[in-house]
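dumping the sequnces here before i forget
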Amino acid sequence: MKILDLFNLTGEQRAKLESLGEVQVIEPAELNDNNIKNINGIYGWNKKAQNVLGQSTELKFVQSNSAGVDYMPLSDFADKGITLTNVSGIHAEPISEMVVAYVLAFARGIVTSQAARRDQKWIGDQVRMQNYTIKNRTAVIFGTGHIGRAIAEKLQAFGTRTVGVSRHGKPVAHFDQVVGDQKGVLQAAKADFVINIMPLTPTTRYFFNQAFFDQMTNQPIFINVGRGPSVDTKALIAALDQHQLAGAGLDVFESEPLPSDSPLWGMENVILTPHISGGFQEYGDEAFAILYQNIASFIQTGEAAINKVDLSAGY
Amino acid sequence: MKILDLFNLTGEQRAKLESLGEVQVIEPAELNDNNIKNINGIYGWNKKAQNVLGQSTELKFVQSNSAGVDYMPLSDFADKGITLTNVSGIHAEPISEMVVAYVLAFARGIVTSQAARRDQKWIGDQVRMQNYTIKNRTAVIFGTGHIGRAIAEKLQAFGTRTVGVSRHGKPVAHFDQVVGDQKGVLQAAKADFVINIMPLTPTTRYFFNQAFFDQMTNQPIFINVGRGPSVDTKALIAALDQHQLAGAGLDVFESEPLPSDSPLWGMENVILTPHISGGFQEYGDEAFAILYQNIASFIQTGEAAINKVDLSAGY
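..and the predicted 3d for all of it:
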């Protein structure tokens, strides 16, 4: 198997793959007009991969280095019978920690204090009694997969009430309650925290739009660690300006990097981070473990072992 | 019993106290040269209370509205046989949440991202792989009382290793390990997070000084939600400048409000909040519940029921 490496495998990882016997790892610099036709697998995705997709007659396997795969040509994969696997699972820990970080930064007055700090304002008397604990508060989490569950589990450790929203609406561990989409909006309307971790699909694009924000009656904090285009940014900014939302913690945006003229940069009731919530120091190791398992399986059985993406569903 | 209210009891709370039968609540504006001599109890502490201490011949009970009582004339209380009770216990939830907020803001790259945000810098590629999760990291917590235990419990929910430091060094729930002061410094040297929640006593004053910071070998994040004077501020600033510490989350300071010429205001690797970590919206209710229980007990038995302060130990 010829595997094109677009995610910077270490020498050790490369050797480990090649020790499987039938694997040859090809680095981007080694790609040429000849070997491009016989690439069997790709690790990662970029323009070079797109090239390989057009020219290789033997491509049968793509392993993404992300959980979301909305940026990939899924229908081409389906047409050509290419198996796509992702690294879903490894983001649960870092993203759930990020969500708790946002939630507590708002609840405990850190956002307000840091804003006042720019003018050296000591606003203890004002903030101290506005602060709240997240015990007995309600978080509505859109998305009940790996990451949604991990978020719910961590929030439950603080005594926060957790409501999950999914298409199926069936019970899931660590959620006090799981409801379908429509009921989810009603729950969000009364919630303290509204958290998006849904994949981007035609159904979820612009899910959080003006009609959604207009229903919020409890001035929740809105958190997006899913995908940027699930949110209508203009509607979000208006909802923040009009205090339909008390604040927002945003890691993903419709357009990234966030354009320099975006009002979000300057909004004091917004924490914004540059699409980092899923990152952590051991990311490369954990992603490699999935790649290795899938390639080993491919060699033995002709099938990937884990994390297969349903190309029609998009996740 | 004549109780001077220095913590703004609500009408409802006042009525509830007076329904005990022998209680008369006196508001600060009602204090005069006559009734000051017969005040039996004080709720809260300020200069007016100091006056009452000098002039009342019948003062026997002071209920603080804080957990720490280092700002009170403890030896005068001891000399005059005055019982002091605090509201220890009600801060465990809000302060432990604040500590997790600081810890995660550093671990997950929020501090770095917000600093870059001022210049509209999108530093995702840089931050994403510097980030870490707090799973399997080590937090050394100085102080294993109510609040220390609550901090440990919450961190354990993230898989963080928790080491407590106390005078006794005996096992305490939610700590993977508890050690005495000297071993605590050695543990802190290797830790990822060093957290102070000790009361301020002659022993803990300037506990975190240059000698302490000089021993740190793992560039920990230092968090102070205890008392400001437990830290030598100049040594702390130097340790941050010299990267002996990777950052600091500070809610309390040697001098409050933080002086306008303090370098801490402008340090990007510092989160500073204006002594708010113990505050939350239901604070008044929870503190009153302790006051009520103690006054009811005083009427029945002549003794406070809960939260008595050891005047010689200072907490």
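Chain A has two domains: 2-89+281-301, 92-272.
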